Amino acid sequence: PSTSISDYERLSVLGHGNGGTVYTARHRRSSANPPVVALKIFAAAGDPSAAREAEILALASDAPHVVRLHAVVPSAGEAPAALALELMPGGSLAGLLRRLGRPMGERPIAAVARQALLGLDALHALRVVHRDLKPSNLLLGAAGEVKIADFGAGKVLRRRLDPCASYVGTAAYMSPERFDPEAYAGDYDPYAADVWSLGVAILELYLGHFPLLPEGQRPDWAALMCAICFGEAPEPPAAASEEFRDFVARCLEKKAGRRASVAELLDHPFVAERDAADARQALAALVAQADDL
Ligand code: ATP
Ligand code: MG
């Protein structure tokens, strides 16, 4: 059955992005399943990132730890007008950090890291690179589930080492070899760029602010270029556990060829499976706490 925007009643705004606005929306047909979705409405008709996101989610949204696509709402032209997505009640990790107003501890961060890695593992197995991993694109369930969202910058590679260094995604979380492909020529692995971004995001959750620049500094192009390409990789403070410090260091290896792979990181003690249930509970507790604020 074909869907249209008018099939949905918009209830509230969940978030704004570059591409458009995401609403909670109820399907007007009472038997619709699920009754309430996150409706991502693209601002521009024919937005190429909308077509890309629909294509990638059609391929990958059955994967665990990837946000589920329920319906593509077509526009008159080629690109979709909107996507009906699984509603993630905890919002994004950027939102959680903002609402908490303080950094997160290692245990809930381990739950984020482990589930994001599982999501990346599934995506990379499908030859999908995300290219825009950051706290605002990691979404939370009420029980501490984490799912990867926002595939507007993603790409399906035709070959394993398909070059895809083209400039998409948010510069702040971009790996050195993507930021400056010429300086890092010969050191290129499209999947490793997602690992760098995850490392920056994880460290941001621990510090409570973007880790590559001094707190409060505007992330303009020149400052980011200096920090990402010419600076030392940032590290957690000495007070952090040895496991956490090592995990972050393995993600933020400046040379892509030396950076840990997703599979290696899934074996890292910081995200050990035996602690996964505990870690998720700690994350769920934070989500509940932020709800009450
Ligand atoms: P940007 O360009 O800023 O990365 P975008 O326009 O591509 O954003 P999204 O990242 O998909 O849009 O969504 C914007 C925000 O809306 C998210 O950061 C999140 O807060 C909220 N959001 C998106 N999808 C969902 C969802 N399925 N459930 C709950 N909240 C969501
Ligand atoms: Mg986003």
Topology:
Elements: E1 8-16, E2 20-27, E3 36-42, H1 48-60, E4 69-74, E5 80-85, E6 91-92, H2 93-100, H3 106-125, E7 128-129, E8 138-140, E9 146-148, E10 155-156, H4 176-179, H5 190-207, H6 221-230, H7 242-251, H8 262-266, H9 276-292
Antiparallel strand pairs: 1-2, 2-3, 3-5, 4-5, 6-8, 7-10, 8-9
Helix pairs in contact: 3-5, 3-9, 5-7
The chain binds adenosine-5'-triphosphate and magnesium ion.
Adenosine-5'-triphosphate is lined by residues 14-15, 17-20, 22, 38, 40, 67, 85-88, 91-92, 95, 136-137, 139, 149-150, 152.
Question: Short description, anyone?
Answer:
The strands form three sheets. The chain has a five-stranded antiparallel beta sheet with strand order 1-2-3-5-4, with helices on one face. A three-stranded antiparallel beta sheet has the order 6-8-9. Strands 7-10 form a two-stranded antiparallel ribbon. It has 293 residues and is of the alpha+beta class. The protein has nine helices and ten strands.
Structure write-up:
The strands form three sheets. The protein has a five-stranded antiparallel beta sheet, covered by helices on one side. The mean pLDDT is 93. Helix content is 36%, strand content 16%. It is of the alpha+beta class. Helix 3 runs antiparallel to helix 5, helix 3 packs across helix 9 (276-292) and helix 5 (190-207) packs antiparallel against helix 7 (242-251). Magnesium ion is lined by residues 17, 136-137, 150. ATP binds at residue 40. GO terms for molecular function: ATP binding; protein serine/threonine kinase activity.
